[in-house]
Every structure is written in structure tokens, then in C-alpha cells.
Amino acid sequence: MTIAEHVARARATLESAGIPAPEAALDADLLARTALGWDRAAFLMKRREAPPPAFAAAYAALIARRARREPAAYILGEREFWGLTFEVTPDVLIPRPETELIVEESLAAFGGGRPPATVVDVCTGSGCLAVTLAREFGGADVIATDISEAALAVGRRNAQRHGMTGRIAFRYADLLDGIGVRADLIVSNPPYVAAREAAALAPEVRDHEPHVALFAGDDGLDAYRRLLPAARERLTPEGRLVIEIGHGQSDAIAALADSAGLRLEHTRQDLQGITRTVAFGVE
Q1: Three-state DSSP state, 118
Q2: Average pLDDT over residues 56-67
Q3: Do residues 107 and 135 touch, judged by C-beta distance below 8 A?
């Protein structure tokens, strides 16, 4: 069999496991390149050839993991975010493109004036936001919090990978508990999935990503109920809170923010037209 024939068979295996055809095709190619240790150019050039002797067994093992609906990012151990490669493990959420909207909104909020002196990333997980914002705001002191020590360990390794170890203080904390500094910018991608929606999630999410970073009570708003008033107390007068929210949560979040003394500044939508990022200022 040629490499291409192995990949075609793997694609069929992934589709049979319930993975949509476009995703199955991408993952079959990606895992083949991983097993071969080739970049995309080499793969396209040589895929009609017979594979090296060790390829078949290594590739079959990777495809078997993916067929059990383990996310490709966990199999590979990394995911790209904002043009940077981040380590990911089952202890952290896999960074998603829509979370880059938090970075876009943060840059827009401070693009025309003084950059933030202090940034706090709440529920940091892999540290993708903390590391990215530390790079984008070169003079800022960055604090990254998480309730998971294992997640903080991943975040620290990512900070080291990107030369940000001395710029980011990783702290074990429940949201903003114990964080006494005033921040110009607070960002967060907190848990926001309603517990009752668990059954509807893709197996890759429901069965593999950390539940502590996914679920937030019966309606998905528990983290926001505590985060919004806590952020209000820790923002500077001209500070901004930029958060990611779930589908259909914008009205409820706006009401919670109003009660907490926060003023809606701006929203951003993802490619599906869903409001995903909301920015607030202090009333």
C-alpha cells in the first residue's frame, strides 16, 4: 500500500467512528504527517510512494486514538493560537479560534492610548491568552489564575516556551480570589456550558476536555455571577473586562454586568454570527 492508500483507509475508519468527513480527511492527513515526521510539502510530494517500515503501526495507533474520539490536539500535544504553538494536555481546554477574539478586542481597547500596565487572565488553562497578551503588551505585568494546579503547570511551560516566564505570574486561585491588584485589563474564557447540555456536546469535548473548565452550573452562568462583580472591584477606573461567552448568553450576561456596575462597551461575533466576546468598562 502507498501512503495515500493508508490515509484513505484511515479516513474511512474515522468517518465510521462518527467524525464528519471533512474533519476526518484533515485528521487522517495530519496524523499521517505526524507518524512520518514530514511537513505538508514532503507529504504531498511523497504520498504516492510506499511508506517507511515503521509507518503502518505508528499510524494505526494514532488513528485508533482518534477513532475513540480523542481530540487530535491531545494526540499531537499542541495547538496553534494567535500564530503561536501551545502545549495542550487533557488538563486544559484546547485553544479555539473564537478565543482569539479576546485578543483582538483587548488590542482594540488599548490601541489608541496607554497600554495596560497590569493584565489578569482568569481561568488561564494553557496560558494561551496570558502568553499572547504578554507578548502584545510588552510593558504589562501579567497575572494568570486557575483553580487547577495541573493547568497552571501547562501554562508555565507555555510561558517558558515563548520566553514569557519572567513576565507572567501564575497563581492558584478561584477566579479572582486573593488577587488584590488593580488591573487595567482583565480577560477570561471561563467555564460557561450548562450542565444540562452535556449530552449534546461532541464526544471530543464531553469525554476528553476537563469538566472543571467547561461546566458552570445548570444554566452555564455560575462563573459569571462571581466573576463580574469581582472584576468590577479590581478594575482601574478606565479598565476593561473582556470575556468569552456561550451561544445565547449575551442578554443574561448584560443583565449580570449591569447589576455588578459594569458598562457594556463592545461585542464581537464569531464566523457563525454568534456573539462570543463582550467587553465592559466601569460604570
Answers
A1: strand
A2: 98
A3: no
